[in-house]
Amino acid sequence: MEDYDRYPKLPGWKYECFGGVIRATPSMHSIATTLAVTPRTSASLCDLVSPDEIPREDLVRTFIAAFKDSVEFFNWSLVQVEEHANKWVNALLDGKRGRMLAISQVAVVDNSVVGAALFRDEDDIPFG
Fold first, then answer.
1. Are residues 57 and 115 in the same domain?
2. 100 and 73 share a domain?
3. Are residues 58 and 107 in the same domain?
4. What's the total number of domains in the chain?
C-alpha cells in the first residue's frame, strides 16, 4: 500500500491496486471548460481551407485513414468502416449532425488532404 500512496498520479486517470499491482485506467469523470477561439495568423506547412472546398470523397478517405485502426472500430471490416465514414461525413456536411462552425478547417499538402478539424455547434445537434 505504501507503493500505491507514493505512485505519481496524473489528473484524468483512476488508480487501483490489485494483488500488489497498480492499474491506471482513464477516469470516467469529465471536466467542462470553455476556450475563446479567435482567428489568428500562424506559419503552417500546409494550406488550410474550408471543408466546403474539399470533395467529400477526400474527407471520407481521410476519416478512414485516421480512424480505421482505432479502438472504436475494433473488429470491423474495412467495408464497415468505409460505410460508417461515408455516413458520418455526409451527415456532418449536410447539417444532420449540427451546424458546422466557420472555424472548421482542412489541412492540404500538394492537393492532398492530410487532416481536418471539423467543429459543430453542439446547441444545434438534432436529436434522434
1. yes
2. yes
3. yes
4. 2
pLDDT digits (tens, 9 = 90+) for 106-117: 999 999 999 999
41 in a domain, yes or no? no
**Identity at 83, one-letter amino acid code:** E
Residue 2 φ then ψ, to 5°: -65, -40
Burial 81-97 (b: 16+ CB within 10 A, else e): bbebbbebbeebbeeeb
The tens digit of pLDDT for each residue in 67-105 reads 888 888 888 999 999 999 999 999 889 988 788 888 999
pTM of the model: 0.62
Under DSSP, the state recorded for 71 is G
In a domain, 40, yes or no: no
Output the CA–CA distances (angstroms, integers) from residue 27 to 5, 7, 14, 18, 24, in the order listed: 18, 16, 5, 17, 9
HSE-CB of 87 using CA atoms within 13 angstroms:
6
